[in-house]
Amino acid sequence: MSKLTRKYSLRTTFAALVLLAVTAAQATVTITNVTVAQRPGTKLVDIGYDVASTGTNRVAVSLVVSNGAAAVSATTLSGDIGSGVATGTGKAIVWNAGADWNRNVGAGVRFYVMADDGGAVPPVVPEGMVPIPAGSFVMGDTFGEGWAEELPLHTNYVSAFYIDKYEMTWSLWSTVKAWSGGNGYSYESAGLGKAADHPVQTVNWRDCVKWCNARSQKEGLTPCYYNETGLTTIYKTGTGTPYPRWTANGYRLPTEAEWEKAARGGVSGHRFPWSNNDTISHSQANYYAVSRDSYDLSAGAGYHPIFATGAEPYTSLVGYFAANGYGLYDMAGNVWEWCWDWYDSAYYQSSPGIDPRGPTSSPSGCRVMRGGTWYDFAVSARCADRLDAYPSNAYSNFGFRCVRGL
């Protein structure tokens, strides 16, 4: 497959934008009196609102703009937006639509103003996990250098969640799997690991889902996956398609949007999980360095020289490289990470702007993987890169990490 660059055909006029829908992320925070108006003769849009809360006088406010089919990139914002917004009346956001959505028109544009307590988390964070605050981010390839499936750019609001700090280790996989064997679980692949503190690999999607349920039950949590739409029988064995209970407090695979939000470390628009530069080298991640990409500073070096010892796979111990802005390790390289979503190359064209959970099916029957690996080029380690794989596939560069809802 050759690399593709997506070019947009834009309209030459900018029509008046219309309203609107309002929601609040938590019941204690209320958004009311939303108004939207385009400033005459400009491409600036004024959004007004009132916000109240029963539990705090400071909230986090975010904005999602939708053209009726998909979210619109809306990142050039000023005013009462972001964290630390004081509650009260007469709040104002200014969107520079000319910068984000120039020459587009629409009579069905909707504005979703949302507020919560800033993604606050309970005082005790689950061991080995990191809280990711609620908020919006721009999803997709901002450099126009990846595959067509990484476009169009779109803004997603993702609710707060926890995510494992490290890729699932061979040690923890083995511990939970040993417990689950006596509790009705069976797996298609045993899973492998080069060492206890290396990521588990050679695990397929269904086995990762079952393992998430086993980890939940072992810790006294409510499992997230079931055999039927009624959500009564816990998914423990077989090759059927599981049904998720999104409100459960147990472990699950991240959605694709959750994964990318976490990978970007709180800063949108960068190529990799770090924000100090847009290049990559073997000092930052475990991947196969080649000369094809100008941003690969280890070009031509091949496998990572520290970890390419003994027999394949050449995985690295988790946490060896620096963490991203959220404190997460190996969001680029080491092993691919399974996500919940079915894979559809056209999904971004119609993805909802709030907590997207993927399409209802896949034309190819594949699920999404993210993050790149020890075996793959730097292009696969980009935050926006997407891989499709059959749920039955289990290779030496396939792994995962878990999330939990707040």
Helix-strand layout with pairing:
Layout: E1 21-22, E2 29-38, E3 44-53, E4 58-66, E5 71-72, E6 77-79, E7 82-86, E8 88-96, H1 97-100, E9 110-116, E10 129-132, E11 135-139, E12 154-158, E13 161-164, H2 170-180, H3 205-218, E14 225-226, E15 243-244, H4 256-263, E16 336-342, E17 367-370, E18 387-389, E19 398-399, E20 403-405
Parallel strand pairs: 1-9, 16-19
Antiparallel strand pairs: 2-3, 3-8, 4-5, 4-7, 4-9, 6-8, 10-13, 11-12, 13-20, 14-15, 16-17, 17-18
Helix pairs in contact: 2-3
Proportion in β-strands: 15-25%
**Fraction of residues in helices?**
under 10%
The CATH class assignment of the largest domain is Alpha Beta
Output the CATH topology of the largest domain. paralog of FGE (formylglycine-generating enzyme)
Structural class: mainly beta
Low-confidence stretches: 1-27
Total of domains: 2
The sequence of SSEs as H and E is EEEEEEEEHEEEEEHHEEHEEEEE
Task: Summarize the structure in words.
With 406 residues, the chain is mainly beta. The protein has two domains: 18-117, Sandwich (Immunoglobulin-like); 124-406, Alpha-Beta Complex (paralog of FGE (formylglycine-generating enzyme)), CATH 3.90.1580.10. The protein is 9% helix and 24% strand. It contains four helices and 20 strands. It has helices at 97-100, 170-180, 205-218, 256-263, and strands spanning 21-22, 29-38, 44-53, 58-66, 71-72, 77-79, 82-86, 88-96, 110-116, 129-132, 135-139, 154-158, 161-164, 225-226, 243-244, 336-342, 367-370, 387-389, 398-399, 403-405. Strands 1, 4, 5, 7 and 9 form a five-stranded mixed beta sheet that branches. Strands 2-3-8-6 form a four-stranded antiparallel beta sheet. Strands 18-17-16-19 form a four-stranded mixed beta sheet. A hairpin with a 5-residue loop joins strand 2 (29-38) and strand 3 (44-53). The longest helix has 14 residues, at 205-218. The two termini are 39 Å apart. Mean pLDDT is 89; it is low at 1-27.
